[in-house]
Amino acid sequence: MAAADVFGRVMLELMEHVLSSSSESRSQENIEKILPMFRTRTPLFYNLSTDILVDIAKNANLRKIKRDHVIVWQGQEGRHFGIIIKGSASIHARKDLPRGPQQDSGPIPRSNKERSALVGPNLGRLSAGSSFGEMVMTSDHQSRYNSTIIAEELSQILLIDKELYLRSFGVNNLEWQRKTQFVNQSPLFQSLTPAIKNLLMESLKLIEIQFGDRFVKQGNVCNSLYFICQGWGKVIAEVRTSMIQYEAMIASKKVTDKSSGRRTVCSERVGHSCKKLDPSRPLSVIERRRHRQQYGYVAIETLFRQRETHVTTIGPNDVIGDIEIFLDLPTYCTTVECLENLQVYELSKYNFFQIITQRCAKTCNILQRGVQTKLRFRSQRLKDIPLYSLLYERSLMFPKDRKKIQGISAPPFQIITKRNAASVWTKNALGSNKLGKITGALVKQTTTSAETADDNKKTAFSIPGKSDEKQPETKGPKQYTVEEFRALKKKMQAQGKCALRSWD
């Protein structure tokens, strides 16, 4: 074992020992020893001063929770702010009035049916470094936990009381108030219940982007949804990247279009113009010099500017990433550049699927109509980029009104990375139904071929007039045991030595 691993394990054991002891027995020397390791346990500690961190390490309490045991109950009086130092937990909530908290109860059943009947459906997951109980600490009207949190493994929870929380995280109180104001005033979340709103606020992450930065780039992996709170941004379409994405989506549709004999706008391949200056094609250094000498400096610079097209401008209450999530796209189909300092709230795909998609059909219907409106506008304005016409046709397949959205398959079951993003584009172009038909046809064809081969073998070995009798079986190579193989190996080695001696 490496020395760094041994040192890290020793420091974790020392931190656990110090935080598990009483506050009076924690010496200043031990607190200073565990302080570097203690700071890395959660992102909340990264920017805290040393004095505040020492105060937390001196007065906070560490509690161990066994697997499948409840950390906090829904409806329980909220007295602490919790941080998961080690382990993970799941979040559950019930719509009706929950039962009274049972602090001495045993483990919760692991089966989804029994657990959902007892504490409600699963709404999300908390990993190491995550926290819970912000609403109880910052709100004057909310004094009880709005969800039940169950440990999924042996976990260590750092509990901070309200006085210590206000003394240490006073800045977070103002941020939480702004987040509460944004969720309550946004038209997207008007139909959410108070419990779902609280879970949503705990999942939202505030991000501040500086002027001129491109925090969303076309072609990058899409794993988050962004809600603009303040500021303005510019949506840009990259011609070359859009062509690559379009070609990836229609590549697998050529076979089905030929077999059906039906031609649509999306199934037709876009014919490139015969111009030598094609903005969708990359140019090498030699080609740039050649075109600059032939067409001039102004023409080549105009070509580079044509590679990016201004689509629209977005501002407060706009959503970024809704097209990619609802159409199940692996990468972003536009780039967003900040026109001024921008404040957005980030929501991961998994949390969106667990909190919004499965719990609030009205919010999903509003987002769906917004996706169709965006794509209709872009397909009419950007006719030179066929990607948006293809996406608009796919968006028209949405049902007009549904109680529960079932179309998002990427989160949480499929983690999209840069390696499998291209394959997901091709897979999504067919759609699940068409892909299932093609896969079934291939399996059927393979099975038919195998059966035909078996029939040919039976016919070759069959004797006329004796079809019911047993046919001779072909024997494969002999299978040696371990002892037989060792004996054969020694025999071959001895023969080899004898051959060498005779040669000498």
UniProtKB/TrEMBL annotation:
<feature type="domain" description="Cyclic nucleotide-binding">
    <location>
        <begin position="44"/>
        <end position="186"/>
    </location>
</feature>
<protein>
    <recommendedName>
        <fullName>Cyclic nucleotide-binding domain-containing protein</fullName>
    </recommendedName>
</protein>
<dbReference type="InterPro" id="IPR014710">
    <property type="entry name" value="RmlC-like_jellyroll"/>
</dbReference>
<feature type="region of interest" description="Disordered">
    <location>
        <begin position="453"/>
        <end position="479"/>
    </location>
</feature>
<feature type="region of interest" description="Disordered">
    <location>
        <begin position="94"/>
        <end position="122"/>
    </location>
</feature>
<feature type="domain" description="Cyclic nucleotide-binding">
    <location>
        <begin position="296"/>
        <end position="356"/>
    </location>
</feature>
<dbReference type="InterPro" id="IPR000595">
    <property type="entry name" value="cNMP-bd_dom"/>
</dbReference>
<feature type="compositionally biased region" description="Basic and acidic residues">
    <location>
        <begin position="466"/>
        <end position="479"/>
    </location>
</feature>
<feature type="domain" description="Cyclic nucleotide-binding">
    <location>
        <begin position="188"/>
        <end position="231"/>
    </location>
</feature>
<dbReference type="InterPro" id="IPR018490">
    <property type="entry name" value="cNMP-bd_dom_sf"/>
</dbReference>
